Amino acid sequence: MNKIRTILVTAFVIVVASCASTYEAKVDFDKNTKVDILNYKTFAWLTPGKIMAPAEDVNPVMKLRVDEEIEQGFIAKGYKLIANAEDADFAISYTVGNRDKIKVSSYPTTYNSSFGWGRGYYGGYYGGMYGTSMGTETRVRQYTEGKLAIDVYDVKTHQPAWHGWATKRITSDDKETPSEMIKDVVSQVIAQF
Predict the structure, then answer these.
(1) pLDDT category of residue 118 using cuts at 50, 70 and 90
(2) Number of domains comprising the chain
(3) What CATH number has the domain bearing residue 151?
(4) Range of the domain at 90
């Protein structure tokens, strides 16, 4: 009995862990191998507006949060923020956006119910002697996916040096506490630099 209990608890933990990770940010980066970023010490914003090509409906309060978290993220890595981009080792900018998406999942009706031995299993008596009566269940879910991309430009060469990004499914918790989500996502992206 203890073995069965251990297996069930382990299976439950795996299922819960996989559900929790479904909504984690997916983070990645790309870098220009022709630009040496090892000796960078100072950074500045590429433009006074900080965000590259802002959307018309960008939330100005959210923008301020992102600006601050990006600055603090680079400062935490040991870089010094200076006002004039021409005097910095690298300049930064970012883009944000979101997109409404739809996920359609289709399963056999028995997928979400338990299989049993005997009647109903492999067709059994439900669909006649040799037939089946399995149907299909379709689920449609609408969700919003957000994206943040941070760009680093080498000031001397005027070349892009690094591009880091994160995509994340926005949950109701993220909407209730956006500052925590922004801080987490920005720090994950900058950690790749």
Answers:
(1) low
(2) 1
(3) 3.30.160.670
(4) 23-100+144-191
